[in-house]
């Protein structure tokens, strides 16, 4: 991974640094990377969003309590934190393409096996396998974008963020109709998504054998060593210090964690909120799909817009305002304004591609992006674990949604505050 300047023409960030050029890759290989990125991104959320519309049926069949269902909706964050932190080390050893390929295989196997489980423990274990595969994809997608498209970080981040949102929306929208078409059993409706994940493995089988990225990483390391030899000791020190010394890295981690909390509460519980308000299962799935599909155009546009701003704080505040409006609406009239609240939540959830873009902009080098991505996502997902679990517990013990929705709205305030700090124009290398 070449030690490229992160402030490329599409980022307009003020921090610039020249380094050794990365060898040009063949055009066909770059196109294969684009295809692989899009297919991988499409499969990073159906594991979660396909379950939401069928959660009530799965709970009844497996004998799952509301608290355990809350644990299930917290599992993605836990697995993302646990396995995501190992992704950079695995990528250095085997190459990011190989690690992403294995992750997609894990998603495929987890999705295929999960519906076959007859008890809660097996269902949770198979889900964890799929979530582990998603975890490495979450962390390595920004790395692969930076490695293969260092001059187009914003547009490429937007492309795979759009594909991720599209996968989320399609899974939420078609799971119930597909389940009905397959005979009405929730197990068939969930298991069918393994086919899509299997298709995504194919381009990565070729990319897994590619060593271009590893050669680029060696070039980067050599260039960095040369730069360090010519630079003052104070300039070389950041490479040897911990990223946990950076306030911006912590702000990014908190922002990422709180937006993930809201996203996984939405994906895991919003269909149930609408169903309890009297909305049918199929319509509840469509409402969740509307929330997810809002991210398709916005996830493509927002990273490019954010990359052209010196600070991303205004975007953080705007998205937070949409989220607060949606939660107030859900509290006052969940069924009456359901379509409006779904749209507002979808806009608010675009904090995810914004967070990914800020990760790419808050480090000078590709190596810095790797470290920052792993830290912000792993720490952020750890922070997001209690949210969905607490929502499930509050729902079970109160029998309603007033307190859970109040919790969701309350968490939006520190999310905005952390995003304002994370969006400031600075680099983590300068802070550590």
Task: Note down, in words, how this protein is organized.
The chain is built from 22 helices and no strands. With 432 residues, the protein is mostly helical. The longest helix has 30 residues, at 247-276. The chain is globular, with a radius of gyration of 21 Å.
Largest sheet: none
Radius of gyration from the alpha-carbon trace, in angstroms: 21 Å
Distance between the termini: 22 Å
Tell me the structural class.
mainly alpha
DSSP summary: helix tally: 22
Taken as a percent bin, the fraction of beta residues is under 5%
Strand-and-helix sequence, N→C? HHHHHHHHHHHHHHHHHHHHHH
- Counting DSSP E segments of at least 2 residues, the number of strands comes to 0
Low-confidence runs of at least 5 consecutive residues? 1-23, 212-240
Provide mean pLDDT, rounded: 79
Helix proportion: over 70%
Write down the overall geometry: globular
């Amino acid at each position: 991974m070449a030690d490229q300047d992160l402030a490329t023409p599409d980022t307009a960030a003020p921090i610039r640094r020249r380094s050794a050029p990365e060898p040009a890759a063949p055009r066909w290989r770059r196109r294969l990377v684009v295809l692989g990125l899009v297919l991988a991104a499409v499969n990073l959320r159906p594991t979660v969003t396909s379950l939401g519309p069928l959660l009530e049926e799965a709970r009844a069949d497996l004998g799952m309590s509301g608290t355990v269902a809350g644990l299930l909706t917290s599992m993605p964050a836990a697995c993302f934190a646990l396995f995501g932190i190992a992704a950079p080390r695995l990528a250095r050893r085997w190459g990011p393409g190989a690690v992403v390929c294995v992750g997609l295989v894990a998603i495929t196997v987890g999705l295929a096996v999960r519906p076959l489980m007859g008890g809660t423990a097996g269902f949770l274990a198979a889900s964890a396998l799929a979530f582990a595969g998603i975890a490495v994809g979450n962390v390595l997608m920004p790395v692969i974008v930076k490695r293969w498209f260092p001059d187009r970080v914003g547009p490429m981040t937007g492309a795979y963020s759009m594909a991720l949102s599209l996968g989320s929306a399609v899974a939420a929208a078609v799971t119930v109709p597909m389940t009905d078409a397959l005979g009405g059993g929730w197990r068939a409706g969930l298991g069918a998504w393994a086919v899509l994940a299997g298709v995504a493995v194919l381009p990565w089988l070729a990319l897994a054998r590619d060593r271009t990225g590893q050669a680029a990483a060696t070039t980067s390391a050599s260039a960095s060593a040369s730069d360090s030899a010519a630079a003052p000791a104070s300039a070389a020190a950041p490479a040897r210090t911990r990223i946990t010394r950076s306030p911006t890295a912590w702000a990014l981690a908190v922002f990422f964690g709180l937006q993930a909390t809201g996203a996984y509460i939405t994906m895991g519980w919003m269909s149930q909120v609408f169903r309890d308000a009297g909305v049918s299962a199929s319509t509840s799935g469509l409402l969740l799909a509307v929330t997810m599909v809002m991210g398709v155009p916005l996830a493509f546009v927002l990273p490019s817009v954010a990359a052209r701003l010196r600070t991303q704080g205004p975007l953080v505040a705007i998205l937070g305002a949409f989220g607060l409006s949606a939660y107030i609406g859900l509290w006052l009239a969940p069924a009456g304004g359901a379509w409006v609240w779904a749209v507002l939540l979808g806009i608010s959830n675009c904090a995810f591609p914004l967070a990914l873009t800020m990760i790419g902009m808050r480090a000078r080098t590709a190596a810095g992006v790797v470290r920052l991505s792993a830290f912000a996502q792993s720490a952020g997902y750890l922070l997001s674990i209690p949210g969905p679990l607490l929502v499930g517990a509050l729902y079970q013990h109160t029998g309603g949604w007033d307190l859970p929705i109040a919790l969701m709205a309350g968490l939006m305030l520190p999310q905005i505050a952390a995003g304002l700090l994370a969006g400031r124009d600075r680099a983590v290398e300068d802070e550590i």
